[in-house]
Design goal:
Elements lengths: L1 E7 L9 H9 L3 E2 L2 E8 L6 H12 L3 E7 L6 E4 L1 E3 L2 E2 L11 E3 L8 E3 L4 H10 L4 E4 L6 H15 L5 E7 L6 H4 L7 H17 L13
Parallel strand pairs: 1-3, 1-4, 4-11, 5-10
Antiparallel strand pairs: 2-3, 5-11, 6-9, 7-8
Helix pairs in contact: 1-6, 2-4, 3-6
Bound molecules: pyroglutamic acid.
GO molecular function, one term: pyroglutamyl-peptidase activity
Keywords: Cytoplasm, Hydrolase, Protease, Thiol protease
Function: Removes 5-oxoproline from various penultimate amino acid residues except L-proline.
Length: 214
Amino acid sequence: MQVLVTGFEPFGGDTINPSALLATRLGGGRIVGAMVAHEILPCAFAPLQARLRGVIAAHRPDLVIAFGLATGRAAISLERVAINVIDARIPDNNGDAPVDRPVIAEGPAAYFSTLPIKAAMADLHDAGIPVEISQTAGTYVCNAAFYSLMHLAATEFPNLRAGFVHLPCLPDMPAAYAGQPALSASTMHRAARTIIKTCLACNTDRRIAAGAVA
Ligand code: PCA
């Protein structure tokens, strides 16, 4: 089994991105016999699809878990759905800020994560780690990466299981000093290892209520 984890470069004025630190820490390790590789993705819309295709072709993973930062969230956010829209409130690291454009022209409106997110939620909960199912990954670079990843899995890499996980801030980030919720790097690492173990052990997701009432 080959696992690929990805993180993002810092963006929006930050000097660190917890997802890049986490992916780097996981990369090169083994989890229950599976090899874990890592890649850091640019926080930019234009190169995403080609970059993801390249890293999947290079590593040939059975499982891809993409991580990103969601400032303001207090828990590990297991994303349920990627949508085919970009609406960038701030420019990406190339200065691009597309508004109301599809991630992939002619692509379907949305893709669901193919990770067992409810089983992972239960396992994280049992491990005492704050966790939630998220019904939206936003409309910025993380959602675009999630959508592109799922589109590649649907069209070019049919045996690939993939999904996206948003992380809170780290305690030493300026946003955390300003009052945003944070989680330690070691808790994020424990969470990621738990999610990977759940994905390796579980092919069919559990059915546990974790929806949102609007
Ligand atoms: N978070 C941003 C992009 C990169 C990242 O780590 C997002 O949620 O879209």
